[in-house]
Protein 1
Amino acid sequence: MRFYGPQNGSITIDGNHIQDIDTTWLRNNITFIQQHCTLFNETIYTNVALGCQEHERVTNAQVTECLEFAALQTTISDLADGHDTRVGSGGSTLSGGQKQRIAIARARLRNAPILILDEATSALDKLSRSSVMRAIRTWRRGRTTIIITHDLESIQTDDFVYVISAGRVVQQGRRGTLASLGVDPAAKDPRNLKRQSLSRAKATYSIGPTQPVAGLFHENSVEALTNTRNTRATWGVEPSTAIDNKPLPMPPSAIELSDRAIESRAHGTKAPLTTVAETSRTSMRAILIFGTFSMTTGYHQRVLFYSMAVLGIAAADALASFAMHHLLESVSQLWVDRLRNEAVRRILQQPKGWFDDITNRPSRLLASLDHNAEDIKTVVDRLAAQIVVVVAMMTTALLWSFLTCWKMTLVSLAASPILYAVTKSFQMISSHWERRTDAARAKISDILLETFSDIKTTRSLTLESYFHKKYSEAINQAFYVGNRRAMFGALFFGISDSAVTLFTSMIFWYGAYLVKHEEWPVKSILTVFALLLFCTASATAVVTYIPQTSAATGTADRLLRLAQMPVISHEGIGLLKLDRHDPSTLSGPIHFINQTFYYPSRPKVAALRRLNLTIPSGKCTAIVGASGSGKSTIAALILGLYPPSTDNLNLSDSPPSLTLSGRDIRTLDLATLRSLIAIVPQPPVLLPATVRENIIYGLKPDSELVSASSIEASARATGIHEFIQSLPQGYATLIGDGGLGISGGQAQRIVIARALIQDPKILILDEATSALDHESAEVIRRSIINLTRREGGKPTVIVVTHVEEMMSFANHVVALDKGRMVEEGSFQDLVDRKGKLWELLRLGGNPRTSAEEND
Ligand SMILES: Nc1ncnc2c1ncn2[C@@H]1O[C@H](COP(=O)(O)OP(=O)(O)OP(=O)(O)O)[C@@H](O)[C@H]1O
């Protein structure tokens, strides 16, 4: 895929050095499906259609065909919105196997000459995997297909195999030939493997007749393909992608945001000085100096006196302004911090279903709690300050002018409803456009997040231009909205400016009229005139703040809503705190009774249907079933992520409940419950931190479980200790985003070590060994066996799995089908019973069960 260039040696395709091939061309002709494939926050239809360069032209029928190919069409037809169902951020509303099958459907539509499957079916049950693999083999006949896998069963005897260990090819040849030499990489007994060479080996296979990769281009030669519409005419080496130290140019919205944040901070210090200048210049100086002009004698002293008075007032004003802005800035910061704090507190108490809602996706929460919160300070420290100043000044000025010339003051006040109406309309329209601008900005950040969150998928599907186009459209839309906002803003600024001019002319005329008819002395008229003009200037200053404050009010509104939203959640209901040191804590079985469960974001399709299930304590239970049958949902309910159902749908059944060790989960304090449960999720999640921090994540620093020896013991139990020691800084090596890149299997073992160190009462492994080779998986299995055999305090282990070895070593196996428990018992019992499990394994082409069937 040329994510990285070869450093030495060479890679050739059809005899052409890979670095001589145009990168876009290359990626257009290779489809790469990763184990943890990322889906985009779009509909199922768009996610599949994006496989095609001309995705706008993809028809529903084509998408249906590809989904059928990936054995997913039936599941999707059951969804209320069918193809138009949104998959959530990263595909969060789909099961692991469903995500993988959408990626396979996308690859089918893409139909590239080279296909690379990197553990691409690891989350599928055997039944789906074998049917999908069969379909892939038929489709790929005679075309280059590279399967990177630990699942040796899916490899056929005439497949060409490369066994790779420590970055070297240690065996190669057809699987049949290797098997006849006694080095069958598919042999499950590790003793059959050449231990030295095959230990921790990953096998790479190519389907179909063995031919050099180059030979598979016979129909679509490089030259022919370079002339296709989607390729560049010349082959060039990809320009260096290294980022130099220059700051990246930011999109306008980002500039705007950061500028505003900086401005708002600077404002606190700048404001007193500005106020001194403004106030002294406009108000007192004008009024007093006007008065001195009408004096005939002794004006020197008066000028000096008033000048000194102005100076004194300016100094006092500076102090007052300093105090005001300092206080307002502190108060606004305090207010925003409190709001943020409260919002985070309430968000954390929301049930998991709340986070599944698209409007509460992480990018939106981040914007409301971080960037927008800075804007909100503007409402307080700018607008509030301005309003306080303007109201105080206007009241004083109006009172003063009323006492000086009430007639002129009343006439000028007659215009105030018009000025108010203009200001109010401006504010309303400004708010409307601010909301639209805000939505346009949010769309831009969503697109950026989606583009960069999994750059590997974006690159391998050559979606750079798609996202760039989408980004440009969003920018254009934001520009259009910004333009309309500017037009309406300018219109109102024009109206308010002309209203001020009209108002000024009106009081000029009326003042002249009063002087002409000698109703009031010139001095009074000039004083009132100055005061009223000053009032108008202050009022207009407020108008200029309207667009900014409308924006800030909109964002403040969102933060306020988060800070005040009701916490309707099951999270805080249970009060019974569980004691880790009490041997009876969670020492009993887990009972699901008549549980029918609907995900809040998909209220019409049940994930579990009247599930009755008992998970014995201190033993290992394997939960098996087809992809999407509800296995991970069981884990989510045990963790209390969603409330169990309590509605008795059928009165003849026992009332639904979920109990742990005889206690209803609703009565338990979920925080303490979760501290006693360790879960290894399907995609291993690493934090950008050191290996040590990743292993002890979740433990309190003063916990007795945090010690160098326990960290090492848990790493040894998952067989990752030697690897960690080989890292440049051992346990202090940075991994995760921005740190050292590690393989999916290594990440999985670190996450399992994290679970083991917690010494959990319940350990849940959700497809936790899917990225591991046979030997590493065996290490994990041995560790689990040791856990369930140790003296006292045995944890209850639940493994959600499609892997036969994992099922066979479990004490108890539960088979699910479409959210129902269809059978349970020991592995051997279920195999003998020839029921659902047998069907799953037999159809997966399992030699052992097939043989048993023949017996
Ligand atoms: N957050 C969610 N919102 C809505 N539906 C969901 C969500 N998570 C899972 N589902 C749906 O619930 C059903 C059961 O999903 P679950 O993840 O439990 O399946 P699974 O048996 O673990 O599958 P797999 O083996 O593929 O991981 C699936 O149809 C899935 O699409």
Protein 2
Amino acid sequence: MNRVVVSREFRARVTQTALSWFSSFHLSRCVHSLPFATVEAEEISGSLPAEVHNIVKGKWTKSSTWNTIVDPLNGEPFIKVAEIDETGIQPFVDSLSKCPKHGLHNPFKAPERYLMYGDISAKAAHMLSLPKVADFFTRLIQRVAPKSYQQAYGEVYVTQKFLENFSGDQVRFLARSFGVPGNHLGQQSNGFRWPYGPVAIVTPFNFPLEIPVLQLMGALYMGNKPILKVDSKVSLVMDQMMRLLHYCGLPVEDVDFINSDGKTMNKLLLKANTRMTLFTGSSRVAEKLAVDLKGRVKLEDAGFDWKILGPDVQEEDYVAWVCDQDAYACSGQKCSAQSILFMHENWSKTSLLSKMKDLAERRKLEDLTIGPVLTYTTEAMLEHANKLLQISGSKLLFGGEPLEDHSIPPVYGAIKPTAIYVPLEEMLKENNYELVTREIFGPFQVVTEYKKDQLPLVLDALERMHAHLTAAVVSNDPHFIQEVIGNTVNGTTYAGLRARTTGAPQNHWFGPAGDPLGAGIGTPEAIKLVWSCHREIIYDIGPMPKQWELPPST
Ligand SMILES: N[C@@H](CCC=O)C(=O)O
């Protein structure tokens, strides 16, 4: 009975908040700002900086330390992030430690919360489908992680569809259990999806909305209490999204939101003893976290993502366009970006490379189809290019120069879309392999060619890589596809003429394979794997056999 009442209350609260918002939204369509938002994407500037706050124990808080973020397009200080330092972590530790290991809900505790999250997701999905809201988030993403409107909107769209997917009863279906008959009457085993309790989510700069929302909601659906930390350069987007989620009925105490540097976060995780941390970002940090947190982590780290063009040449224009998108959309700053292209010699006889060059040269700063690189400077990328060009037989295919006429601050990088050819045999040499397969998180790719009998060399190159995120086998030859897939491990592998490495939507698994710590994002399988563990309850209620006698000891 109590549960029913609680459930009704939850639903009434969710519905009321959303309804009042929707009506005020429709009544005030001409009003400039959105009711949940505290900033206007276009107005943020040096004279009107935006502020990013934290949430702890259900309250928005500031801090005494402000980290100033500069506009990646002109270097103007334009966002102030209230960052928590080591002296300020205790309230976050206390908040997390209030959540028991068995979580905020599980199949035996507060199951109405599964329904509540179905409702919140439905409301949030609806909000993101409103053109004005979608446009707001798209432009906000563009301000902090400059990419074209379409690429930024892609994030909003994926997030909106994801939330739609987990509307209604779909959250409770995530926690679906199973039963197996036992050995005797009254015995039955049941498998359940169990939360971890207090958990943490650490996400990078490149997808300011998509990655944090998909992981955050997955954590919540399964009954965990998450603390979320997004790269401060872009955390303004999640600051605003948290406000939207609160509008949609998210209980304010369910999520803590923190801005801090990595060192402070590390301290907090150790002190709060979070049961699981999902980290999306660089391999270097991922490896450190795995040690510090004694393996209680799931990781989606680097990807030196590869594409192989098979022997069957067809649809050259289309393949060239997909290569261009995979390597250079978002200025190559996707974990799924194409880092190396293995081209069958049949493709070398076509005009594929010159088509790729033409497409790369269409990209321009004005519409952000090429733009600032947030983790590499121009010098660092050009130095890497020069090192590759010293390898015997290598050559610059296109790019390899700084962008011109821009005001991107020197702390960030700005280069033209770049491709460097390196001969396969040279790439495989011990001295060169590490250099050639170093991931440059920018508009940068290596191109190589293999002869018809050299597929084993290609497969050897793939075997020696250490991160296995996305891959593409561009061919409609089933035997070729079989051979490549059967001899590789990448977690998200596209196969067929239209294969790509990027663009992973919410409807398929995205994550590395070949690593027991590998995380996934997007699908029910990813949510269950990352955000819940298995618990088995074996019922054994009798009755006792009628003639039961005490057996001898064994
Ligand atoms: N949709 C993104 C993946 C976001 C990941 O975590 C991509 O295709 O790169």
